# Entry
Amino acid sequence: MTKEREGEFYALLLSIIESWFPILTIWAIAYVGAIHTYAYAVTVAVLLFLFLSYRHATLSKLFDAAARRDLLLTALFITLLFLLLYIGLRYTTAGKMSLIIFLQLLFAYLYFNILGSQKMTLLHTLGAFTMGIGALVILFPEEFGGINIGDGLILLAAAVAPVANYYQQRARRYVPSETVLLFRYLFALPLLYLLAHLFEPEPSLKQFLDALPWIVLSGLLVMGLAKILWVEALHRIPITKLSAMTALIPLFTMLFAYLFLGEVPTLRQLLGVPFIIAGGILITRPVEH
# Structure
């Protein structure tokens, strides 16, 4: 399997796992606050990556001088990104969140292809725009009533995502995946508990225990396994291509949200699906040399 194909396989697997993020988060937020949910999930992830780093003898990599700047910037932008997502999910649906965050593709294309020097082939560019059309068809409102605060926060997160991924990609050149992830979670943890204490009521023990199963699943799968797959995929394929491939996430989220949350997709959302699938086929076509 080529390096590019490995990256595409990781992107597909992480799409299935990541599609559960808004659903698990909504279930947890029903019992504890959004920032508390993020803080607790990060705590689970820290324990996981401390164990993995100990097993792989990579704890010393946290202090790698060559990666320090990229690790710090990764942690800063990722923490901001997920704060926006968790708070935004208080005000919007799981399906809509997964569709809006997909617009990181368009921001990535703007940052790295139009304004930057990273180029894609004509076929990949066509795939990216086809997927973008699918997302816009899905997101265009039936009646314009203004954007709500949740959608606005998630759109802002989509704009931050390519920058965060850029620094993650750079950091991964110097240190392994578990180091990148452990560093960013250790960076976020004290800040999240401080913000949760300042802006949200402390949950009761019963509320915490009710939310705990969803928090543990989110920490292990979404914050853990999926993020390892994400960093490894970034190490193998361009940011724009990875962002485009993760357009599968909204499709899986819409399905799971319908089955487990009772969210019925609109006709407009269903009309956008063929564009996303067609774009996904184009964007994953191998480059001929």
Q: What stands out?
A: Residues 205-234 form the longest helix (30 residues).
